[in-house]
Amino acid sequence: MFTLEDRINERLRASDYQDWRAKVESVGGCAKPIRLFGCHQLQDTRTGDVLHHIGGDIFVPCGNRRASVCRTCSDRYAADAFHLIRAGLAGGSKNIPETVADKPRAFVTLTAPSFGPVHNRRTSPRGKAMPCACGAFHHPDDPRIGTPLDAEGYDYVGALLWQAHAGPLWQRFCMRLRRELAKAAGIRVRELKEHLRLSYGKVAEYQRRGLVHFHAVIRLDGPDGPADPTPPWATGELLDHTVRLAAAAVTLTIDRPDGTPLELAWGEQVDIRSVDARTAERVEADDGSISEARLAGYVAKYATKGTGKSEAADRPIRSQGDIDLLRCSPHHRQLVQTAWDLGTDPRYEDLNLRRWAHMLGFRGHFLTKSRAYSVTFRLIRGDRKAFRLAENLALAELDPDTVAVVNDWRFTGVGYANDAERELAAGIATRIRDRRNIRHHQENRP
Ligand SMILES: [Zn+2]
Ligand SMILES: [Zn+2]
Fold this sequence. Notes:
Helices cover 35% and strands 18% of the residues. Helix 1 crosses helix 11 and helix 4 crosses helix 9. The chain starts with a helix and ends with a helix. Strand 8 and strand 9 form a beta hairpin. The model has no long low-confidence stretch (mean pLDDT 84). By secondary structure, the chain is α+β, with helices and mostly antiparallel strands. The structure holds zinc ion (2 copies). The site of one zinc ion has 9 residues, from helix 3. One zinc ion (ZN) binds next to helix 3.
């Protein structure tokens, strides 16, 4: 009988172990790396000589955003999300000047409305714990929190259709916000872009009831973008006021399966905080304003969360059998089931509900931004690639004008060969993370 331990020992003794380990380390111990075969080389364009060559089997990180799938890649995604949101708040990069910190900015949370009463933890205005409507005092980790008090009476169809339209609702919110800003300035909405540009970066975060909240940094720029001064009438107070008006006013009416109208809107709970460049790091001021660093940290955390405390599914649902086998709460299962059932209704064909059933109907991206908000993921990651290339060139003391880069890779598979390799890779990932944490402490950074 071979135990896992035996298989691990066997892998450790194999002649290619050092080689394999180096590949795993190159992807930070990614839980499910993509395997490629081919080569990357640098060629002298004048002579055709190969100056630098990496070839053979390589690993590429899976890039999954969710910590439950791959901790390594999720950490990296969070770091990139932090950088992206932070650049839009504080500037300091090539395209985003530091003056963005002086512009009116707000951190806005838009919520889903209620589709029926749910178990919750309540506190009185004086901060005293109050019982849930079911009579219990729920522990913060109680899986019942967020799930319906009465599953029979809960509007699953409404909840699922709301979630499938969360993206379009956001678009309408932005349109409405532009209109409210124009109205306040006494100009036509068509003319607004000659005075002002609205920029945002936003993330979607699943709540325990399985519906998303949007958290967005909204910034008012001048007509030419972040480097252009914002008109003096566009103040932080005006932004706050118009966001409230727009959030309350936006609706989208669709049909229920029985043909009756369903009006979709944001929840009543709208949270708006001003973002203050002067508020110290890691501090929330008494007036509720929030520091740039803390805010970017929140956003990074939201961006890597899964569908909720009891995860629904990691991959798309292919059949009723997949739903029956899901290990999740009855509430999440019912949301998946509702998406699956509505998926055959021709009136929702465009929503592709079966494809998004495992995401509880949410079809959007987790991190989105308007064009001018900040740097892009591609730029952040491109910088890294360019950096690596520059390093290679520096090592070889080459002239970039006469060097051609050749990339030729073929896909050979995903993930590790067996449980022993997975176990070893997880250990490597943990060690890399520990080393990094120690370094952070030594540098005395948050
Ligand atoms: Zn990964
Ligand atoms: Zn309860």
